[in-house]
Write a structure and sequence with these properties.
This protein is α+β, with helices and mostly antiparallel strands. Helix content is about 25%, strand content about 35%. About 25% of the residues are buried.
Length: about 150
């Protein structure tokens, strides 16, 4: 839970991600534009954009002192909201959001004890009118929960 809270706080605190989601500072991003699980809306009106995420862990088979953490981000938008225009340039919204998340997560040590790396960036289309990217970031953390609590996790 601590990792999910930390990630949600980073999303809400990022001026760039708030802008990409169309939210003002202090507006309701959690559970409206970002969910700490793989959220796929049942219906789209054509304007929704989401940055959702989840975390999985597994023991490191090479060293049981550590566990491998994988954070998956599910970036999705209605296909009519996929185009992003800024400063005279056009790109896909979810590509811009993916770049911002990579800078945010790989530029800081938000969780774990190892360096966070982007391990994959793949197309993601869980719904016929929904387009996006699936990002996976990996790092390591201590397998001992008491040690993680000491480190602020």
């Amino acid at each position: 839970m601590a990792y999910k809270n930390r990630i949600m706080n980073e999303i809400c605190g990022s001026e760039e991600l708030r802008m990409l989601l169309g939210c003002e500072e202090g507006s309701g991003i959690p559970y409206r534009h970002s969910f700490p699980y793989e959220y796929i809306p049942g219906t789209f009106t054509g304007t929704e954009r989401y940055i959702n995420f989840d975390i999985s862990t597994a023991m490191d088979p090479a060293n049981n002192t550590f566990r491998n953490l994988t954070v998956c981000f599910y970036l999705l938008s209605h296909e009519d909201a996929a185009i992003w225009e800024e400063n005279g340039q056009t790109c896909l919204w979810y590509d811009k959001a993916a770049c911002e998340l990579e800078q945010l997560l790989c530029g800081k040590n938000l969780f774990g004890v190892g360096r966070t790396i982007l391990s994959s960036n793949e197309p993601y289309s869980p719904h016929e009118r929904c387009k996006g990217r699936l990002l996976k970031f990996t790092t390591k953390d201590f397998s001992n929960r008491a040690q993680s609590a000491i480190n602020g996790a």
